Amino acid sequence: MNDDQLSMIDERLPQAANCKPRTGHRSRVTRLILVAGIGIVSSSTSALAEERSYGGEDRDWNIPPTAQFRTDDYHGPTPRTIPGGRVVRTIELHSMLIGRSPPYVIDVLGGRGHRTIRGAFWLPGAGAGDLGADESRRFVEAVAKFAAGDKSRPLVFFCADRECWLSYNAALRAIAAGYTNIMWFRGGIAAWLHAGLPMSPAAPFAW
């Protein structure tokens, strides 16, 4: 930082009546300490921004995690963790998607159509907890295509919001199939929308 920039900071600092600058300018050492302090505050602010949650994605209803598929009442309070996988939050997922090796992001919300995370693959019906043998086989085959045979490849499942069990089911099914890097985006579309992140119309992926 040069003297001009330090002078600009000087002008913004309040001057106490009993602490006037010596010989017309503030001690350079003092100014450098103040600049360092500003940098620390800035870094702390950035860290807090990364911890921010969206769409109530961190809401805790004290629902215990389970390795069993939910077969009815798919809309309701969900656990905060998932056995064999991990929960990913909005800011982290966004960072991964704009990174060098983004994960495949899989939307399992039902219905005829909706807006979803840009770049996501929509597998309608894949989050049901009571898939038949043929549907289960097709789901595993579809996931294998995304993973390209690599069971350690990161895959993210999501649906509507923090009260949607469909993505929990789909993540459990992938974990049961032997995938070791499964993430559940608990906040889902609601959290992504709340954060103002890029979305696009969902196009169904045949599976």
Major sheet: arrangement of strands: 1-6-5-2-4
Give the uncertain stretches in residue-range form: 1-49
Number of helices: 6
- Please provide the ordered H/E string of secondary-structure elements: HHEHEEEHEHEHE
What count of domains describes the coordinates? 2
Give the number of DSSP strands.
7
Strand content: 5-15%
Largest sheet: 5 strands, parallel
CATH topology tier name of the largest domain = Oxidized Rhodanese, domain 1
Q: Structural class of the helices, strands and pairings?
A: alpha/beta
Write out the CATH superfamily name of the largest domain.
Rhodanese-like domain
Give the oligomer, counting copies of the same chain as homo and different chains as hetero. single chain
Helix content: 25-40%
CATH class of the largest domain: Alpha Beta
CATH architectural grouping of the largest domain: 3-Layer(aba) Sandwich
Describe the structure.
It is a single chain. With 207 residues, the protein is of the alpha/beta class. The protein folds into two domains: 3-51; 86-201, Rhodanese-like domain (Oxidized Rhodanese, domain 1, 3-Layer(aba) Sandwich), CATH 3.40.250. The chain contains six helices and seven strands. The chain has helices spanning 3-12, 28-51, 90-97, 133-147, 166-176, 188-194; strands at 86-87, 104-107, 115-117, 121-122, 155-158, 182-184, 199-201. The strands form two sheets. It has a five-stranded parallel sheet, with helices on one face. The chain has a two-stranded antiparallel ribbon with strand order 3-7. Helix 5 (166-176) links the parallel strand 5 (155-158) and strand 6. It is globular.
